[in-house]
Design brief:
Keywords: Amino-acid biosynthesis, Arginine biosynthesis, Transferase. InterPro entries: ArgF'-like, Asp/Orn_carbamoyltranf_P-bd, Asp/Orn_carbamoylTrfase, Asp/Orn_carbamoylTrfase_sf, Asp_carbamoyltransf_Asp/Orn-bd. Pfam families: OTCace, OTCace_N. Belongs to the aspartate/ornithine carbamoyltransferase superfamily. SOTCase family. The chain is of the alpha/beta class and 322 residues long. It folds into two domains: 162 residues, Aspartate/ornithine carbamoyltransferase (Rossmann fold, 3-Layer(aba) Sandwich), CATH 3.40.50.1370; 147 residues, Aspartate/ornithine carbamoyltransferase (Rossmann fold). The chain is 37% helix and 14% strand. The protein is built from 13 helices and eleven strands. It has a five-stranded parallel sheet. A four-stranded parallel sheet has the order 2-1-5-6, sandwiched between helices. A two-stranded parallel ribbon has the order 3-4. Strand 7, helix 8 and strand 8 form a beta-alpha-beta unit. Helix 1 crosses helix 13, helix 4 crosses helix 6 and helix 7 packs across helix 13. The protein binds N~2~-(3-carboxypropanoyl)-L-ornithine and phosphoric acid mono(formamide)ester (CP). N~2~-(3-carboxypropanoyl)-L-ornithine (SUO) binds next to helix 8.
Length: 322
């Protein structure tokens, strides 16, 4: 089954980036590929970009699109399985088990896209990615990750395309910097960004306060620098993101506004560009002057979400023909 859940489902990243860029130049060139097929997009959490860009990309490929805000409109889904001698007794809030729900949606759809964020209460539970595991097991069709508990591959692919388009050096320095936020946010975007950058020809540096270390399997060979000013020196791309602690799972440990990205910070870079997946809280994470200035790539990045989704969907559809 040709799932698209992480970088591990990508054989040739350069080819995938090129596929996105080709679709950008010629959006309707593969219109026949998805003809008479249906994709279902299931959202357990809010979305603007992922929902609209994936719907648009799917339509460019000729797919019919069904969208459901399962988190709001659907029956509450029980994800846990009965174990020998320990049946799951569904006498709580959840009216339907994923065994039936996934199997039923799989009857209506040829591909299922899912967004399900980390709940940030239990590290082991979140990093097990139960929702995705269960849909993979019971839907019987390819699954597309629209941001899972631990990863956001369509965002990362759009980020790769954006860096490829805007780089001015063969091997740019890319700095992933933690940004301040009062809310606890998932590690998914940061995890995924590292994982994908580790497959690109870039120098990846990660900077964050002590206590915000990401899981080592995502950081890979990236250099971790705790001094943000030092990390930013000579950067070609500054990728901002807030995440809550992984080690003190889901906690907000630091409220230090000096980690916010300002023009003064950007002046340390080598005429660097600023990137963020959005949504972004102005003047909490990034100053207006950066977002509204010529260094910001956030709109270009969001535009590339369409081409990232189209490249991923093309891979899935081509796999279905084999
Ligand atoms: N899909 C892109 C990011 C989604 C999510 N951000 C948020 O929930 C921001 C919410 C806020 O700022 O209130 C995250 O960090 O994973
Ligand atoms: N970047 C991103 O995934 O945006 P949405 O949460 O609005 O989909």
């Amino acid at each position: 089954m040709n799932h698209f859940l992480s970088i591990h489902d990508v054989q040739d990243l350069n080819q995938l980036i090129t596929s996105g860029i080709i679709s950008k130049r010629n959006p309707f060139g593969d219109r026949k590929l998805g003809q008479d097929k249906t994709i279902g997009l299931l959202f357990f959490n809010s979305s603007l970009r992922t929902r609209l860009s994936t719907q648009k990309a799917a339509q460019n490929l000729g797919l019919n699109v069904l969208i459901m805000n399962v988190g709001q409109d659907g029956w509450g889904l029980e994800m846990e399985e009965s174990l020998p001698g320990m049946p799951v007794v569904m006498d709580g809030a959840n009216a339907e088990h994923v065994k039936e729900a996934a199997a039923v949606i799989g009857q209506y759809c040829d591909i299922i896209g899912i967004r399900s964020f980390a709940k940030l209460a239990d590290q082991e539970k979140d990093y097990r990615e139960l929702v995705f595991e269960q849909f993979k097991k019971y839907a019987g069709v390819p699954i597309l990750n629209l941001e899972s508990e631990t990863r956001h591959p369509l965002q990362s692919l759009a980020d790769c395309i954006t860096i490829e388009e805007f780089k001015v050096k063969a091997r740019p320095k890319v700095v992933l910097t933690w940004l301040p936020h009062f809310k606890a946010l998932p590690q998914a975007v940061a995890n995924s960004f590292c994982e994908w950058m580790n497959r690109m020809d870039v120098e990846l540096v990660v900077t964050h306060p002590q206590g915000y270390e990401l899981a080592p399997e995502f950081v890979g060979n990236a250099e971790v620098v705790y001094d943000q000013d030092k990390a930013l020196e000579g950067a070609d791309f500054v990728y901002g993101k807030n995440w809550s602690s992984f080690t003190n799972y889901g906690q907000v440990l630091v409220h230090d506004p000096s980690w916010m990205i300002t023009e003064e910070k950007m002046a340390r870079t080598d005429n660097g560009k600023f990137m963020h997946c959005l949504p972004v809280r102005r003047n909490v994470k990034v100053a207006d002057e950066v977002l509204d200035g010529p260094r910001s790539l956030v709109i270009e990045q969001a535009a590339n979400r369409e081409w990232a989704a189209q490249a991923a969907l093309k891979e899935i559809l081509l796999g279905m023909q084999e």
